[in-house]
Write a structure and sequence with these properties.
The protein is of the alpha/beta class and about 220 residues long. The protein has a single domain, classed as P-loop containing nucleotide triphosphate hydrolases (Rossmann fold, 3-Layer(aba) Sandwich), CATH 3.40.50.300. It is built from 7 helices and 10 strands.
């Protein structure tokens, strides 16, 4: 599904290069559940942002389902990202002015779904996440755990093939965090490819493979 070869990312500081990622070589197969671990500043989020097409590498190649992401125009890349990738963030990123229902529906508005298809897809998510009773509430009326569930529902409502999660339980208590990880596990068992960045050994253990980053390099 994903092939990264000799990937480098750097910033120029005072005339010298500071490397955020160095010579990353990585293959991720469809259906895997990958955990990326490493100390703060090791390049975890940078790597996730490149895989998620939110950022570009300075050197190296990135293939997504056999397509070269590097050679795509920005518009193509954005379209592929919207089509194939869902994102879950530590800080939820829900839209305050929208209800739970409207937040989940948002990604579908950019696609060619009819109103009745959107209604069915959002309804399916509300059922699945047991938040039907919360559909007319606004984010500030929800607990952190509920907000993150809405964030996950929004990320997967359009049925992406890849879910990227950056410290998805970072703002949750341990019970809420456990529920989110169990949810990821069941989504992965249904065939969704998941890549998560985490500091937690316990969360990382849910992955079928753990990748350790240190100073922008993959530790072997």
């Amino acid at each position: 599904m994903i092939t990264l070869q000799h990937l480098y990312k750097y910033v120029n500081q005072g005339g010298s290069r500071v490397f955020l990622l160095r010579d990353i070589n990585l293959d991720i197969h469809s259906g895997e559940f990958i955990s990326i671990m490493g100390p703060s500043g090791s390049g975890k989020s940078t790597l996730l942002n490149i895989i998620g097409m939110l950022d570009e590498a300075d050197e190296g190649s990135y293939l997504f389902n056999g397509q070269s992401v590097d050679s795509m125009k920005e518009k193509q890349r954005a379209a592929l990202c919207k089509e194939q990738i869902g994102f879950v963030f530590q800080a939820y990123h829900l839209i305050d002015e929208l209800t739970v229902y409207e937040n989940i529906e948002t990604p579908l508005l950019y696609k060619n779904y009819t109103a009745s298809e959107r209604k069915a897809m959002v309804g399916d998510m509300l059922d699945r996440f047991h938040i039907v009773g919360k559909k007319d509430l606004f984010p500030h009326q929800l607990s952190g755990g509920q907000q993150q569930l809405v964030g996950i529902a929004r990320a997967i409502v359009s049925r992406p093939s890849l879910l990227l999660a950056d410290e998805p339980t970072g703002n949750l208590n341990s019970q809420q965090g456990l529920e989110v990880m169990e949810l990821f596990k069941s989504l992965n068992q249904e065939g969704l490819t998941i890549i998560q960045v985490t500091h937690s050994e316990k969360n990382a253990a849910y992955g079928s493979r753990i990748i350790h980053l240190e100073d922008g390099r993959i530790e072997h």
